[in-house]
């Protein structure tokens, strides 16, 4: 049997190493990006301190890491304080007044209302958040796609005189975009998997089998 050439061996080694290192490199890069993004937001909370104290190069360089850590801790404390206020009567009234004020500011109200609706839709306590995973015929009758039920389409339910579900079908590997379709409940197939398992299945391009199905297949 003919031995592979040195070039072929190096190429095989490269692709094997690439497959091993890629998940770690992407994970670290994503973590660094998130950390820098969060730091850019939280660092503004130290506005009451002189930049010559918090930033290197006499205030012209990046902030010192320990001041960035202090700003992050400060942001966590402020978030906890906001949560504490939102759980009592007077705090709720304050947030309601602030909410109404933001909704009356031109241009800002469009952005604020959109972000608020998205946040409420994905909130665990919201009835419009993903409730279960289903299989629907999409994009044509001869193919199937995994979707997440977001609620019942009351408008089409009244017109068709039968339950109609609103189903979000994410794109892959980026599940933050997708299609919203209305499907009669009788034409959906409920999958016995959790929503997180369904999302992992989509992000992995179908290479990660949901644990509940995997245990059944063994």
Please tell me about this protein's structure.
By secondary structure, the chain is an alpha+beta fold. It is built from eight helices and five strands. Helix 3 packs across helix 4. The longest helix is centred in the first third of the chain and has 37 residues, at 6-42. The protein is flat.
> What proportion strand?
5-15%
Q: State Rg.
A: 25 Å
Largest sheet: 5 strands, antiparallel
Helix content: 40-55%
Low-confidence stretches: 214-218
Question: Total number of helical segments?
Answer: 8
Termini separation: 38 Å
The neighbouring-strand order within the major sheet is 4-3-2-1-5
Helix-strand string: HHHHHEEHEEEHH
Mean pLDDT: 81
Total beta strand runs: 5
Overall outline: flat
Overall SS class: alpha+beta
Question: In a few lines, what is going on in this structure?
Answer:
The chain is of the alpha+beta class.
Which helices and strands, and how do they pair?
Layout: H1 6-42, H2 51-54, H3 65-86, H4 89-103, H5 108-121, E1 132-137, E2 144-152, H6 154-160, E3 164-170, E4 178-184, E5 189-190, H7 195-203, H8 211-217
Antiparallel strand pairs: 1-2, 1-5, 2-3, 3-4
What are its keywords?
218 residues, alpha+beta, five-stranded antiparallel sheet, flat, disordered C terminus
């Amino acid at each position: 049997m003919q031995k592979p050439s040195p070039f072929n061996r190096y190429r095989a080694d490269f692709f094997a190493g690439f497959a091993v290192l890629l998940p770690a490199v992407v994970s670290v890069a994503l973590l660094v990006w998130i950390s820098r993004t969060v730091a850019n937001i939280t660092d503004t909370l130290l506005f009451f301190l002189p930049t010559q104290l918090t930033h290197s190069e006499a205030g012209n360089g990046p902030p010192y890491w320990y001041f960035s850590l202090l700003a992050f801790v400060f942001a966590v404390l402020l978030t906890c304080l906001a949560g504490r206020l939102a759980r009592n009567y007077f705090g709720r009234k304050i947030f309601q007044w602030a909410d109404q004020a933001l909704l009356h500011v031109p241009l800002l109200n469009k952005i604020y209302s959109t972000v608020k609706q998205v946040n409420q839709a994905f909130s665990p306590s919201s009835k419009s958040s993903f409730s279960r995973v289903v299989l629907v015929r999409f994009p044509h009758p001869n193919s199937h796609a995994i979707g997440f039920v977001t609620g019942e389409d009351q408008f089409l339910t009244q017109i068709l005189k039968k339950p109609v579900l609103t189903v979000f079908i994410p794109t892959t590997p980026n599940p933050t975009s997708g299609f919203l379709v209305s499907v009669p409940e009788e034409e959906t197939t409920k999958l016995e998997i959790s929503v997180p398992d369904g999302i992992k299945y989509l992000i992995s391009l179908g290479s990660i089998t949901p644990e509940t199905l995997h245990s059944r297949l063994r």
